[in-house]
Amino acid sequence: MGNADDMNPSAESYNLDATGRHRVAVPPPQPFVRSLKNTLKETFFPDDPLRQFKNQPPTRKFILGLQYVFPILEWGPRYTLQFFRADLIAGITIASLAIPQGISYAKLANLPPILGLYSSFVPALVYAVMGSSRDLAVGTVAVGSLLMASMLGNVVNIQENPKLYLHLAFTATFFTGLFEALLGIFRLGFIVDFLSHATIVGFMGGAATVVCLQQLKGILGLEHFTHATDVVSVMRSIFSQTHKSKKKPRLFWISAMAPLTSVILGSILVYLTHAEKHGVQVIGHLKKGINPPSIMDLNFDSVYLPTAIKTGIVTGVISLAEGIAVGRSFAMFKNYHIDGNKEMIAFGMMNIVGPFSRSAVNFNAGCKTAVSNIVMALSVMITLLFLTPLFHYTPLVVLSAIIIAAMLGIIDYEAAIHLWHVDKFDFLVCMSAYIGVVFANIEIGLVMAIGLSVLRVLLFVARPRTLVLGNIPDSKVYRSVDQYQNANNVPGILILEIDAPIYFANTNYLRERISRWIDDEEDKLKSSGEMVGLQYVILDLTAVANIDTSGISMLDEVKKIIDRRGLKLALANPGGEVMKKLNKAKFLETIGQEWIFLTVGEAVGACNYMLHSCNTKTTSDVSEKYSNSV
Amino acid sequence: MGNADDMNPSAESYNLDATGRHRVAVPPPQPFVRSLKNTLKETFFPDDPLRQFKNQPPTRKFILGLQYVFPILEWGPRYTLQFFRADLIAGITIASLAIPQGISYAKLANLPPILGLYSSFVPALVYAVMGSSRDLAVGTVAVGSLLMASMLGNVVNIQENPKLYLHLAFTATFFTGLFEALLGIFRLGFIVDFLSHATIVGFMGGAATVVCLQQLKGILGLEHFTHATDVVSVMRSIFSQTHKSKKKPRLFWISAMAPLTSVILGSILVYLTHAEKHGVQVIGHLKKGINPPSIMDLNFDSVYLPTAIKTGIVTGVISLAEGIAVGRSFAMFKNYHIDGNKEMIAFGMMNIVGPFSRSAVNFNAGCKTAVSNIVMALSVMITLLFLTPLFHYTPLVVLSAIIIAAMLGIIDYEAAIHLWHVDKFDFLVCMSAYIGVVFANIEIGLVMAIGLSVLRVLLFVARPRTLVLGNIPDSKVYRSVDQYQNANNVPGILILEIDAPIYFANTNYLRERISRWIDDEEDKLKSSGEMVGLQYVILDLTAVANIDTSGISMLDEVKKIIDRRGLKLALANPGGEVMKKLNKAKFLETIGQEWIFLTVGEAVGACNYMLHSCNTKTTSDVSEKYSNSV
Hints:
Two copies of one chain form a homodimer.
Chain A: H1 32-44, H2 58-69, H3 72-75, H4 81-108, H5 113-130, H6 142-152, H7 162-185, H8 190-193, H9 197-219, H10 233-245, H11 249-273, H12 305-334, H13 340-351, H14 359-364, H15 371-387, H16 396-408, H17 413-422, H18 424-439, H19 442-462, E1 466-471, E2 478-480, E3 493-498, H20 504-528, E4 536-540, H21 549-564, E5 568-572, H22 576-584, H23 587-591, E6 596-597, H24 600-613, H25 620-629
Parallel strand pairs in A: 3-4, 4-5, 5-6
Antiparallel strand pairs in A: 1-2, 1-3
């Protein structure tokens, strides 16, 4: 019998055997440690970050290392004056957006408006030094703080205890940073991958809806905003705005400048008409100057710590997912590489002092390097030092308008429609996120969406599709008869393709399903009164990437079932992993090497040969012929 | 351009086109509702339970329906005297095992020994009527109550409040039953599938270890047992024993009778020597008669309810998983069918009065039908009514011995070694279950094992393998060069096989990985100083069973990346689902129908044709040629 031992690859063992069929190889045995090493590498270092370090002199390695941690060292030396001009313009543009937005979102989060400005410039500097995206402009996510507001609001009443609230906000941000940095350092980038595009669309649409509804209050001059929130909508909103404005960059300038303009006009108007005395709410006094480091303000009180950590982690994951997505989409345009894990570390560092936003403006403002972030930071700093009094008269209505304008850009119903057309399940995920956020809250929306997405992956494995294959006319190719209407069944032979790895989660299902296919086939043949009954079952394992021990015992049982029905089981094209395990589990000997084929075509050929040459029940002679030659 | 519209299947559209290549078909469009219906059917009714009802007259349908719910109606009429003789012997054999075990395990669970006997006969009757396995003998799982003991023990102190404890035990069993029945009614059988073979081996080994350690106390006559637990070990133990005893069924009788024998001998010895007066613990008084229905004793006090429910569910899942596994393995021998969901309902009904055990004995005692269960039930009932006094003098040591004997059979180290050889990850799962149970507790062990198993499924999708394909000598077949040492790379063409569905969870990884493969290939070509550089990248989508919207945009980006490098992207053999979605998402138009091939062979053929005929950079003429003919 062609058992496992004479299957280990050796030059001649691959030649065609006497019956002109190819050998299915068991891949060369690999030491456990090495295969483990490979697996871990693929899991945690898919982007092979140390690629560039290979065979370099130590000093070069050191420099590369520094550049890896601080990309600024890489592009810094090559920095020119034209670059600077571009960056200057870009920086100022962003600032013009950053300042009103900073104030708006701080206000939204029930934080002192001034904080919005602070958090615009420190993180920007950090990212300029550590970030790997040249276009991702960073600054306030008071929007991020909005998420906090909604979560912190549950434990602290902002009216009763504003100071505690403020400190918790700092603490949560700190944990966001810590969490992101750790994810990056431990190469857990792929956690973020579990937020699908559909999830983000639905989630942000929902958040934007909620925020808009609350802003209407602001516009109607009602009591200041409740603590609802979305996360990275601003970035996305502007991103989508610029998408629209791709064709006419002139108009883009207007949309980028609009917020600042309206703030200025609004303020002047109020100042002249003294409207603030007639009930129009204004920002009021902003204290000048840079704020003291907030390390002192961190609150690790065990009562609030869980909330702070939870808030921090949720904020972290969302902002990362979006930040990396946006950064990557720009990287696509300019063809450079974004290292997800590196990004996380950078974001983390930023968040340990405060979060980010506003890429697309930067990109469209034609920035060349992260220097634009530095310029932006400086302009904001100048504003802080000298210009804050100007905002005294800015009416809150304007801020609300700015926010709503940003939010409306986010509710991406076209994307939702696209999802419905292309992939119903993605649409379901998207909707559940949207509805969860709008009618319940952020966490529920997220959990629902992610839960569904993961469930889909599990169901894919738990309920793999099994396809009946037929022969494509004038070819030796066998394909699904559902997909190819012209594929012809082969009389007496049932060919099944299994479309997923055979794991514990689907062994029971596959056993049931395969026997059902056999029943159906035999019923069909009976009813159609075929001369030749079912004789062979061929399992095409091409799409079975892997198998576990439960899967192997399932194959064992399937073989028993098929034998008992007086049929023969053949396997077509089992992959390397599968062959390895079938070999170790001695299943190759159970089924017999001569029943394993390189292609469905060869399997069918052999079966037909036996069908027509000799009595199919005693294929021993053919088997002998095979096994001898094997 | 060969866009989607002219691809809808129509007889002629499948003919070879002018260039002699086959068309890749988009499967005929299916109304959303029907495809949804199919999906749900496959998910919840994989075994097609209503199959036999198809085209039957209504009266027949009704009878079949009754038989479906109560299998006894199916075999009852065909019942003969020989059957009864076999069942009688089998029933008595089981009883001889059931009685001592019932008492032992009740004692273990700190429940009155008498309960062990009660729960041996009522469930047996239920299962006899409703169960679909002829060989699964049901009765006490005071072992199941052991699991309860450990979980209930945390909230109630048996010494202080034995009555409350007893009632909670009843309540938990009730919920076990309710949960199992619901699972079955809602066709959620597949939840049990997520307990892999590896998990069960490790879990039961661990539990058995714990129980043995505690029994030693019993043997050494220490204070009575702590509340530790395993679940279905008895069944498995006897199952494995009989496996060993397959060859010599004579000996099997001994092993089956042993417990009763030792109980009798032990009791007589104590009775004669009056050892009970000298510190040998005995069972003591057992009250005669049938116990009052325990419905009154259910305790729904909100303080204890959560624990009761939790305990019930854990017990339920485990016992189901094992019960179905064992039942199925017998069904294998005798070639009849076990309906997982129906089993659940039956088990559920049983548990609403108490759990099960002891299949293998039944099987080896050669029972013919579930009547053996009835016989067993009757014998136990007789024991209850008249023979309980005999157990007065049974020394606890004997019970401990019986338990340990059963447990030792369970620690299936051979299975663990097999796992290590065949599948390292399964071994890891098994060990984590074992260690979790031994060093922490049942729940932790389970959660660890199931968590790992699910993680594996997720990782399979999050980090799919990508394989480089080469040509198998003297064939048009392309296979992994890792598996087939003799497969030859095709100069100028990189062929990649993706081994998993392209879902949100792996899009980022695949993007990175594919570009890395391209880099590596180009480096290799450079270093080897090949004449012809890399020109084409062929993605073999055979193993890509499905794709979501994130996946499609990933393909879009990959195409951009490849175009930018001046290469050409071709797809080979996308499946029905994939073609459907690529079509809806208009990706077929982006890439061009002429770049999608039925097989890798044809793709390579076309690429080579272009490589050698015309300048590869401008393949437009060829494309035209294709698309016109398309």
